[in-house]
Specification:
two-stranded antiparallel sheet; 229 residues; single chain; mainly alpha; Four Helix Bundle (Hemerythrin (Met), subunit A); GntR family transcriptional regulator; Arc Repressor Mutant, subunit A
Length: 229
């Protein structure tokens, strides 16, 4: 059964990259899974050259690793990598939330509120892809209007890698309601124009999310170690 839809020639490079990136970050292809070029070509309806070009781009984004004698595989994240990623994410997202409060229009804050509402609906419907899309819209609005394009560029790269973890841990039954409540509090801080509160909530949200991710990775590494023993 095909995992991806056929792509037509228009804007081919971007669309192939986008299809593969979305399949990886939403968990269609799991960390460590081999990506067979021939199968990708058949599923996408494109040439091997187009697939290879897209895989090179995703390798640069650290979503794909090219393994000798095995070929491209979906990247994995170690526990230490995750700690460093979440530390940087906490700092930058807090900074971005603070900057957004001082610069955002009422309409942009309303866009955040609408994305948060879509996020809640997707979460309640157990729609993982919908949750990822709504979160992406929320962050695009915040980061695109925080007053620092470099922070936006760095965080977009971080989010792509962190989505490798989100695809497996985002719908954690214990974490999800707390995550939604934190996002609601963040939106309220935007509406109140409370920059300090927005920064605090944003950093808290990342710290709490990291605990779930670290737990998942620790269990995964322990399982891998037991399998080698």
């Amino acid at each position: 059964m095909a995992k991806l839809g056929v792509i037509h020639p228009d804007t081919l490079r971007q669309r192939v990259e986008g299809a593969l990136r979305n399949a990886i970050t939403t968990g269609v292809y799991r960390p460590g899974e081999r990506l067979v070029e021939r199968e990708l070509c058949e599923e996408l309806g494109v040439s091997r050259a187009s697939v290879r070009e897209a895989l090179r781009k995703l390798e640069a984004e650290k979503l794909v690793n090219i393994v000798p004698h095995r070929g491209p595989v979906v990247a994995t994240i170690s526990l230490e990598d995750a700690r460093q990623l979440y530390e940087l994410r906490s700092l930058l997202e807090g900074f971005a939330a603070n900057g957004f409060v001082g610069r955002a229009s009422d309409e942009q804050i309303a866009d955040c509120e609408a994305a948060a509402a879509d996020l809640r609906r997707a979460a309640e419907g157990q729609d993982q892809n919908g949750v990822l899309q709504a979160k992406a819209r929320l962050y695009d609005t915040i980061l695109g209007n925080c007053g620092n394009t470099h922070v936006w560029e760095i965080l977009r790269g971080l989010h792509s890698r962190i989505n490798l973890l989100r695809a497996t841990s985002l719908m954690d039954e214990e974490r999800l309601p707390k995550s939604l409540a934190e996002i609601d509090s963040l939106i309220q801080s935007f509406k109140d124009r409370d920059a300090k509160k927005a920064e605090e909530i944003s950093r808290l949200h990342v710290r709490n999310a990291s605990k779930v991710a670290f737990g998942y990775l620790a269990a995964q590494e322990a399982e891998a170690g037991a399998a080698k023993a």
